[in-house]
Amino acid sequence: MANDVPSAVKSVAANLSDREFAKVQAKELTEQMDAPKIVHDIFTALLTSDDATTEAACIRLMLGVTPFPFTEVANHYQGALESRDRAYTLHLLNLGAASESEVETLKSLAKTALSDGRPGMKRYGEAQAYSAEGKRVCEVAYNILVSRLSIGRSFKLIDVDNLELHQRDILIKQLCAKLGVTPPGQSAQKIPSGAGTETATAKTSHGNQPIASKPATQSATDSPPASKSWLFWLLVVIATTLGAVWLFLRKSKH
């Protein structure tokens, strides 16, 4: 009988071939502790392990909890700061989401994670290592969204072993553009309210190259010198007129 999560994880790891064994261990845990405690302890065991078999046991044990503690796992995600924690939490939420509301919550969380390009899952919670590189958080989120959204066949699932990094980045950027999300590695930039479409098009066409100012902007820039020139000649005319009047009055006195 499992007295705590660590001992249950070890038992499940030793019996990975028996999928029902994890359910039995999970049921024993739910009889001794509440869902938040189980979720906390399983994530602690998962994130402190660097062993693929233990990772698989943790995920198998979490999925064995009935009903799946979706709310508690989603709450854990909200407080997750480390990228590995976020990636595994999303992965578990995807595996455990059942109701429509849970699926909608999952998609919302995955959308927020689509901009996170940090390292995430190493082994996907299975007993064998898929690759040394593993999946980034954004790639976990991407696969969740592609599989959960009705977007046709425009996007294919990311397989880190068969797609180069730049190929995966292209897919993620395309999905970000479709969903209106900032791609990984880019800062969200707000366009000024007065900016026109011409300026936006120029930036898109020329990348980071400086964009020449519009003629209207140039005329606005040139207007101060023109005003100074006009004021100068006005003063000259006034001075000349006053001089002429002074001379006229002087002659009239004599």
* Poorly predicted parts: 124-131, 188-224
User: Mind summarizing the main beta sheet?
Assistant: 2 strands, antiparallel
Shape: elongated
How many helices does DSSP assign? 11
Give the C-alpha Rg.
33 Å
Q: What percent of the residues sit in helical stretches (DSSP H or I)? A: 55-70%
Task: Write structural notes for this entry.
It is a single chain. The chain has about 250 residues and is mainly alpha-helical. The chain has one domain. It is about 65% helix and about 0% strand. The chain has eleven helices and two strands. Strands 1-2 form a two-stranded antiparallel ribbon. Helix 2 (about 20-30) crosses helix 4 (about 50-65). The longest helix has about 40 residues, at about 215-254.
Secondary structure: elements and pairs:
Blueprint: H1 5-13, H2 19-30, H3 35-47, H4 52-64, H5 70-79, H6 83-96, H7 100-113, E1 119-121, E2 135-136, H8 137-148, H9 165-179, H10 197-206, H11 215-253
Antiparallel strand pairs: 1-2
